[in-house]
Amino acid sequence: MIKAMSIRISALAAPLAGAPASALATLLVKLLVALLLSGCAAGPDFTRPAAPTVAGYTAEPLAAPADQQLIAGQDVAARWWTVFGSEELNQLVEAALQANPELQAADAALRAARETAAAQRGAYAPSADLHLQPSRQRVADTLSSPTASGANLYSLHTAQLNISYAPDVFGGARRQVEAAGAQAEVARFQREAARLTLAANVVSAAIEEASLRAQINAMRALASQSQQQLDAVRKQRQAGQVGAAEVAAQEAAQAQVEAQLPPLEKQLSQQQDLLAVLAGRYPSEGIAQRLDFDKLVLASQLPLSVPARLVERRPDIRAAEAQLQAASAQIGIAKAARLPGIALTASMGSAALDAGTLFKSGAGFWSIGADLVQPLFHGGTLLHQQRAAEAAYEQTAAQYRATVLTAFQNVADTLHAIDADARAVHAAQRAEQAAHTSWGIAQRQWELGQGAYPAVLQAGQAWQQATISLIQAQAARYADTVALFQALGGGWQEDGPP
């Protein structure tokens, strides 16, 4: 069965043919120039997808919180984490960006992709190789010796320079370079995405760690007050003022408060381990920086890139776009494989029976030639490879659209979350203030002899519970602010360092 078929036209010139070398060389040079001037790149030229035309991120306009203003049209700053006003947080992020192994792996992947792209550009240039081949040979007596001596055992020394060049007539090499360059861009934007994710994870983990410490402090204060109330109830029991049921109820309440501490302490330890690993350290080494939750600053102004700008700012979208360009170039590569190809070759050297006469007069030889190939039949392989490349492009285009839609969803979700967080924090603040006022009133009444001490303890417990709820609401608001910075693509710069 015929598996493949092609038309090959070869031209070869050598001294034995008796043709002038200069005339043949001139002919081949003219042929090469004509081919290069008429050359074009096979396949479609890549066109960037159009930017989305939607006017906003959410179906209904969101009212900006009173203490946070959305600045439409403003991009995220390069060091966006500094808006929280914590030098300890800044140090944590910078340390992670310097030492995180996953980011270092992304850096190495980017360098590898760029070197691969640079290597692919070598297809534009001719290749040259120098060969030196000493040999010892024996031929059968029945065969005439290739040497003038007629001996059937001889040595042969050959030194030869080979030069070859494949003109990129139909742009197959250009498409390969384009594909490799696009893959380097994919690695670049994946590196930027890894950097953004790392910074966001560090900030989120640091804020969560600080909030857990604040919650634990409030919970310990609550446990202390609950213990005081239990002691007071026990004294009342001894005085016969309350029964055993009241004591048991307070003991249960005290146990419930104490039971809430271990889960918080577990979460705190895990967050501290996470921060150490994100900074490229072992958990046992820990981290020196500790954020003060009460000193964190809520950004009064939040950037909000216009929707059409989001596709420029999100590194995952830019990576998907680069993948799309690479897929487009693969179509050109597949098409070029079905078109004629030409290869130019030249060689020169010398051969002698001993090394001492290798470069003497009469030992030299040379050849120059061209090879033109037109694929005719390859069992449908080349056609199906082209169709596969076209289908892969459609797949990548759909993946690009999915990435864009997900990015817009991320922004919309965080905007809704920030809006809800603002209302939750304001409600928690009112509850905390009311609980604090209630505790103050109970405290003054007890001091004036108008109230019982257990009422003071109960009011104090309510205040501590409200404080914990406020800390949790504030932590959620900080976390969603970080999520907005991340959803908008962070602060990477188009012309910044890789």
Mean pLDDT: 87
Query: What is the string of SSEs from the N terminus onward?
Result: EHEHHEEHHHEHHEEHH
Helix content: 55-70%
Tell me the strand percentage band: 5-15%
Q: The CATH topology is what?
A: Outer membrane efflux proteins (OEP)
Overview of the molecule:
This protein is an alpha+beta fold and 498 residues long. It has a single domain, classed as Outer membrane efflux proteins (OEP) (Up-down Bundle), CATH 1.20.1600.10. It has 10 helices and 7 strands. The chain has a 5-stranded antiparallel β-sheet, covered by helices on one side. Strands 2-5 form a two-stranded parallel sheet. Helix 4 packs antiparallel against helix 5, helix 4 packs antiparallel against helix 8 (315-336) and helix 9 packs antiparallel against helix 10 (453-487). It is elongated, with a radius of gyration of 38 Å. The relative contact order is 0.17. Residues 1-5 and 13-19 have low confidence and may be disordered.
